[in-house]
Automatic annotation (TrEMBL):
<protein>
    <recommendedName>
        <fullName>F-box domain-containing protein</fullName>
    </recommendedName>
</protein>
<dbReference type="InterPro" id="IPR001810">
    <property type="entry name" value="F-box_dom"/>
</dbReference>
<dbReference type="InterPro" id="IPR053781">
    <property type="entry name" value="F-box_AtFBL13-like"/>
</dbReference>
<dbReference type="InterPro" id="IPR055411">
    <property type="entry name" value="LRR_FXL15/At3g58940/PEG3-like"/>
</dbReference>
<feature type="domain" description="F-box">
    <location>
        <begin position="781"/>
        <end position="829"/>
    </location>
</feature>
<feature type="domain" description="F-box">
    <location>
        <begin position="1"/>
        <end position="54"/>
    </location>
</feature>
<dbReference type="InterPro" id="IPR032675">
    <property type="entry name" value="LRR_dom_sf"/>
</dbReference>
<dbReference type="InterPro" id="IPR013101">
    <property type="entry name" value="LRR_PRU1-like"/>
</dbReference>
<dbReference type="InterPro" id="IPR055294">
    <property type="entry name" value="FBL60-like"/>
</dbReference>
<dbReference type="InterPro" id="IPR017937">
    <property type="entry name" value="Thioredoxin_CS"/>
</dbReference>
<dbReference type="InterPro" id="IPR036047">
    <property type="entry name" value="F-box-like_dom_sf"/>
</dbReference>
<dbReference type="InterPro" id="IPR006566">
    <property type="entry name" value="FBD"/>
</dbReference>
<dbReference type="Pfam" id="PF24758">
    <property type="entry name" value="LRR_At5g56370"/>
</dbReference>
<dbReference type="Pfam" id="PF00646">
    <property type="entry name" value="F-box"/>
</dbReference>
<dbReference type="Pfam" id="PF07723">
    <property type="entry name" value="LRR_2"/>
</dbReference>
Length: 1213
């Protein structure tokens, strides 16, 4: 306690801010120092459930928080007495958000209103002292920057005229409870409104509806119960549909006719029937959702859909409709041929769409979705009625491309029955139509495709397919050889894991592939892998004579066990190539984790023309034995520039002349390849004891003396004698010097559970820690037990949840403390079922122990093997407890649809989600009022640009948006529009198409990173505040092939294949700019003119040997204020050479050219990535021999980051 009391007041108050005010008040009894500290905490949370009214003597102090400049005020008053709102609340100069809630007795007495900073106003179940409506209008007009207004459970139709008028309002939600009376008048004068949600009784008139900016509306207007009864009664008694004269919704519909996304409740559908003279034309409407009900018919739907000429997506929530019992009345809706009752029937079996004018035959709708398909609500519903209706849609709608039925059934046979029913259709209106039946309950989908070749326009269902995800085949022979195996794979469309043992095979679209073939004396003729989605490969076989196709685009981890046949082993003695594995290695070069057997090293040596570059490889495991040499390692390691971890399973290998610079078998002739290695962690697994003169010890010493970046050496010594571990530690301490001073050396014996750690400087002997250290630890632990739980939880919050859980073993006091930490971090990527079970139990236990405590951050990372019923409750739990930072990294097979609750959270400030092939999101309502950071990776928007626009409109304070691997090329228009956004990262997935149109309306963006194919046009680009930009626009593969085919000297034949001029014009105010080599090529062929970058002071150019610099002269000429120019490489198309030495000469020539031409140059810095000091000296000497420089002030510096050296040349050269 003395240690904590020594902290400054500001830090202690920050610690107390994590507690509720009531809990923080308990610390006042600790000492005089703590008595009043709680009063200085910036966040106050007061809950008075004891007294209905405060004492009169304290009444004057109720506005104290307002005097302190409160920004966010949340008041909930529940009292049996009238409790007026303090008038000081309505004249606050600092309030940004105000939330008022309570019972009907919570009264707002509006006298003077001045809320100059208020942006969000929520009112729930409150009343106004003045019931004339003037008080409400005065309140809204006094909020000059109001952007969001929410009114829930409010009787706002207490007066003759109900009106909302505010020029800055962007979001408006009005939810009024059921009422037996209609408002006389409702007006909405909100020209900036983007989102409207209105649930209320239909008004008698709507005199003013100013909704010019409206994008999305959810309409739930309804008639009174008496009006509903009278309207339906007249229809049932065959008097027809009588339009009501006392109410009218026509003006309201006219006001929202510019909307793009519209949701209509079933009650609103009935209002259109009885309370609307004419339905206006919705020219902008592209997405319409209709809620259906078994008591509401579809009389208004024909006119509504006919007046939506640009509608693309139509969604039905259910397929229910009311039976009107007028089928035999020829004067009304249905023909008399449709009998309501048939023999033996006890209900109406009419089909309301038959005998009517075909209101669907001219519909432009391309996508039809049915939610809650198959839902039976009462005796009137059955599956036949719903299937008949879908058949009618498919047979009538000519532009339909996709029908999706969401069928909530736990039985896969139900999906098969429905799918088979659609196969029986004799004709369809659209030959492009595809019908999909989706069941979330069993994660199963069946698809029916229309056949363009069929003269009957019938539907063809792909049979003999099943949802197989794992296939394990051992010693199976296919009679049709490769044909039978290929047929098997083509019938498994969702196969993710394939294991082949003791047989041969080819391709698939799966994620894991294991092939283990018997040792035999023949080599396969040809082996091909066309598996672009494969993530894991385990391949053991004789090397094939050829590998014509190897497609491993998504490969992450590979275990390779290639081997020579017996005949090839004899041929290897002649030192000639006995096969060719080059194509196979090129296919593997994107892998991140690689395991190579000892026999594979032999294949690399004798069967490979050249070793490719493994740019993504970060972990490499090498298996060794005394029959295979290391000849291929000197070429392999330099081609792994980003390798971080190197693992050797044994160090004994065959001594040859080829591995001399990798080890000490033969005297090395060249500099060791280890000296340029980037490896930071070296692990060596030994299974035998090490003698003083053994080669293993010498090899370890060689590694330590040559590897300059090594930070950790771990030797796993599989021995059962503890003395051997200490002996090996002593031998390692005797090494005279090591290349890396940061290297930590550790010797571990798994059998003995011993670990010996040597100091990084190797300057003192290793010894076990003295017993006094353990006693000090126990004493410190006892002192920590005296700290309060809240402070201990704050300390534990610096650990991961898994690490914090270990402290539960310390004592009973610590048993459950880890579960109360506000930041939760769970991670499990294990494939073992037991690990899944224990992980689920662990997460469930932690959340249960927390009870109702607030969650600040929740991070969940888990792979395959979990069920959605495990994960969904976790997400719902933390959302319910006010999580502000949510990080979801889950498999798409687990969370195929992201829970909708995530997008209506009132507390989220940061949201990050999406691994590769991330989840899909379907958005109905989006309300994230506090979200400032949104990071999405590989997330698919089911509704395309509509869903994306809906997401942005629901994030009113979003400041940072990062979208990676976004597939938006198929959207009609790709657009990002936000007035608040400050940082925007948009990296689109590689594809073969160019977006049609891309727009950015982001006037406050400061940082912009953009990677995408060049668009056909950029109609709107608003980057008024842009400071820094990183641009990577590229042409498609076809476009690159076309332009590269044209000769560089034939300028007349070169044609533009796109136009990036508009994009450059949009970012021309930038100060710092990065251009990729793809962008340079795009500027060469896709830009009419390069604009002037008057503000640009820092420019970075990335170079590539396949791209020229044709666009650079005009670009640099148009940067009049450029101060710093950075080249990432100097090799480009005009200077490319196969000889490294010649490349170096050309780069020196290029630097010489810069120095002779740039008059204002003051500093030239050359970063030379070399680990050899002589190379640095040689380059410096060549630069000193330059004949002349254009600038007498220029200072030249050559820096080697690898060596930590810098050579500065004199100004005079």
């Amino acid at each position: 306690m003395n240690l904590i009391s020594s902290l400054p007041d500001a830090l202690i108050c920050h610690i107390l801010s994590f507690l509720s005010t009531k809990d923080a008040a308990l610390t006042s009894v600790l000492s005089k120092r703590w008595r009043h500290l709680l009063a200085f905490v910036t966040n106050l949370d007061l809950d008075n459930t004891i007294y209905d009214r405060p004492k009169m003597g304290r009444k004057r102090r109720r506005h104290l928080p307002l005097e302190r400049g409160v920004v966010d005020l949340d008041l909930y008053i529940s009292s049996e007495h009238e409790y007026p709102l303090p008038p000081q609340v309505l004249i606050s100069k600092t309030l940004v958000k105000l939330k008022l809630a309570g019972t009907d007795e919570f009264i707002i007495d509006v006298r003077e209103v001045s809320l100059p900073k208020l942006k969000t106003l929520h009112m729930n179940d409150v009343s106004f002292a003045d019931e004339s409506g003037a008080a409400f209008g005065k309140l809204v007009s006094g909020c000059h920057v109001l952007e969001e207004l929410v009114m829930v459970k409010m009787t706002w139709d207490f007066c003759g005229a109900c009106s909302v008028s505010n020029p800055t309002l962007k979001r408006l939600i009005i939810y009024c409870e059921y009422d037996d009376e209609n408002p006389e008048s409702v007006s909405l004068d909100t020209p900036s409104l983007v989102y409207l949600e209105l649930t209320d009784t239909v008004a008698a008139k709507y005199p003013k509806m100013n909704l010019d900016s409206l994008v999305e509306a959810s309409v739930g207007i309804r008639m009174t119960p008496d009006q509903v009864f009278r309207g339906r009664d007249l229809v049932n008694r065959h008097y027809g549909y009588k339009l009501r004269k006392d109410v009218s919704a026509t003006d309201f519909l006219m006001g929202i006719s510019h909307v793009k996304i519209l949701y209509l409740s079933s009650q609103a559908l009935e209002v259109l029937t009885f309370c609307c003279k004419v339905i206006p034309v919705f020219n902008n409407l592209i997405h319409l959702t209709i809620e259906t009900d078994q008591d509401v018919d579809w009389e208004s739907l024909p006119n509504l859909l006919k007046n939506c000429p640009n509608l693309e997506t139509l969604v039905f929530e259910g397929l229910h409709y009311g039976d009107t019992n007028q089928c035999f009345d020829d004067g009304y809706r249905f023909k008399d041929t449709n009998e309501c009752f048939v023999t033996g029937a006890d209900r109406c079996v009419c089909k309301p769409w038959l005998g009517t004018p075909s209101w669907l035959s001219s519909s432009p709708v391309k996508k039809l979705k049915v939610l809650k398909f198959g839902e039976i609500t009462n005796y009137k519903d059955d599956m036949d009625k719903q299937l008949d209706l879908i058949n009618h849609f498919v047979q009538t709608m000519p532009n339909l491309e996709e029908v999706v039925l969401y069928y909530d059934t736990p039985f896969d046979s139900d999906l098969e029955i429905v799918s088979n029913g659609f196969q029986q259709l004799e004709k369809v209106a659209s030959t492009r139509c595809k019908i999909q039946v989706v069941s979330d309950s069993i994660s199963f989908t069946t698809t029916v495709h229309s056949s363009s070749s069929s003269s009957t326009s019938g539907l063809v269902f792909f049979k003999n397919t099943f949802p197989l995800k794992i296939l394990d085949i051992d010693s199976v022979v296919f009679e049709e050889e490769g044909v039978g195996f290929a047929r098997l794979l083509s019938g498994c469309p969702v196969l993710e894991e394939l294991v082949l043992t003791n047989m041969g095979g080819k391709t698939g679209s799966f994620a894991l592939l294991t092939i283990f073939l018997d040792d035999f004396d023949e080599n396969p003729m040809s082996v091909a892998f066309d598996t672009p989605s494969l993530e894991y490969l385990k391949y053991s076989d004789n090397i094939a004579r050829e590998y014509p196709k190897v497609n491993f685009s998504s490969l992450v981890e590979a275990h390779i066990g290639l081997r020579l046949s017996e005949d090839q082993k004899y041929e290897e003695e002649e030192k000639e190539m006995v096969g060719n594995a080059t194509n196979f290695l090129l296919g593997l070069c994107n892998v991140k984790i690689l395991y190579l057997s000892a026999k594979t090293l032999e294949v690399f040596t004798f069967c490979c023309e050249a070793t490719p570059v493994f740019n993504n490889l970060i972990q490499l495991t090498i298996e060794s034995n005394d029959e295979s040499g290391w000849d291929s390692l000197p070429a392999l390691l330099p081609n792994c520039p980003n390798l971080e971890t190197l693992i050797f399973k044994g160090l004994v290998h065959k001594s040859t002349d080829g591995c001399g610079n990798m080890c000490l078998c033969k005297p090395p002739k060249n500099p060791s390849c280890l000296s340029s290695s980037a490896v930071k962690v070296l692990k060596i697994i030994l299974s035998v004891d090490i003698d003083d003169e053994g080669m293993e010890m010498e090899q370890i010493m060689h590694f330590l003396e040559k590897m300059p970046w090594l930070e950790q050496l771990v030797v796993y010594f599989n021995i059962s004698y503890d003395s051997s571990v200490f002996d090996l530690s002593k031998k390692l301490q005797s090494i005279p010097r090591i290349a890396s001073p940061k290297c930590n050396i550790q010797v571990i014996s798994p059998n003995l559970s011993l670990s010996s750690t040597l100091p990084s400087t190797l300057s003192k002997k290793w010894s076990a820690p003295p017993n006094e250290e353990y006693s000090w630890f126990l004493k410190a632990l006892k002192n920590m037990d005296d700290l309060p739980d809240n402070l201990l939880c704050q300390i534990l919050s610096n650990l991961s949840t898994k690490e914090a859980a270990v402290t539960s073993l310390l004592s009973k006091r610590w048993r459950h403390l880890f579960a109360l930490v506000p930041n939760l971090d769970f991670e499990s990527f294990s494939s073992q079922h037991t690990d899944h079970t224990s992980f689920i139990d662990f997460v469930d236990r932690v959340l249960k122990l927390r009870g109702e405590d607030h969650v600040n951050k929740f991070s969940l990372k888990c792979g395959d093997g979990f069920e959605d019923e495990d994960v969904y409750p976790w997400i719902s739990n933390v959302l319910r407890h006010g999580v502000s930072d949510l990080d979801l990294h889950v498999s798409s097979s687990l969370v195929y649809w992201l829970p909708s609750k995530v997008f209506v959270s009132k507390t989220l400030v940061r949201l990050k989600m999406g691994p590769e092939d991330g989840p899909k999101v379907k958005l109905r309502n989006v309300c994230l009022p506090k979200l400032k950071t949104l990071i999405l990776d590989s997330v698919v928007f089911v509704e395309g640009e509509i869903g994306f626009a809906k997401l942005l409109s629901g994030c009113p304070v979003l400041e940072e948006l990062s979208l990676r691997n976004l597939e938006w090329g198929y959207w009609g228009s790709c657009s990002v529009a936000s007035k608040i956004l400050k940082r925007l990262t948009l990296c689109c997935a590689h594809c073969d198409d160019n977006p049609k149109s891309v727009s950015f309306d982001t006037p406050n963006v400061v940082y912009f990173k953009y990677s995408d194919n060049i668009a056909q046009k950029y109609p709107k680009l608003n980057f008024d505040s842009l400071v820094e930009a990183s641009i990577d626009i590229r042409m498609t593969n076809d476009q690159k092939a076309n332009v590269r085919f044209v000769s560089n000297d034939d300028e007349e034949e070169r044609e533009m294949v796109g136009n990036a001029t508009e994009l450059l014009m949009g970012i021309c105010n930038v100060k710092t700019l990065y251009l990729s080599y793809d962008t340079l090529e795009t500027l060469n062929f896709c830009c009419e003119a390069i604009p002037a970058f008057s503000n640009l002071t820092h420019l970075t150019i990335e170079s590539n040997q396949e791209v020229g610099w044709e666009s650079l002269p005009e670009l640099l000429k148009n940067c009049p204020n450029l101060e710093t120019l950075v080249f990432q490489g100097l090799t480009h198309k005009a200077t490319t050479c196969d000889d490294d030495d010649v490349d170096m000469v050309m780069e020196i020539v290029m630097i010489n050219h810069f120095l002779q031409k740039m008059l204002n140059l003051e500093q030239l810095i050359v970063y030379y990535n070399t680990s050899i000091e002589d190379d640095l000296v040689e380059v410096s000497s060549q630069l000193q021999m330059l004949p002349a420089v254009a600038s007498s002030k220029c200072k030249i510096q050559v820096i080697s980051v690898s060596l930590g050296l810098s050579v500065t040349l004199p100004i005079s050269l």
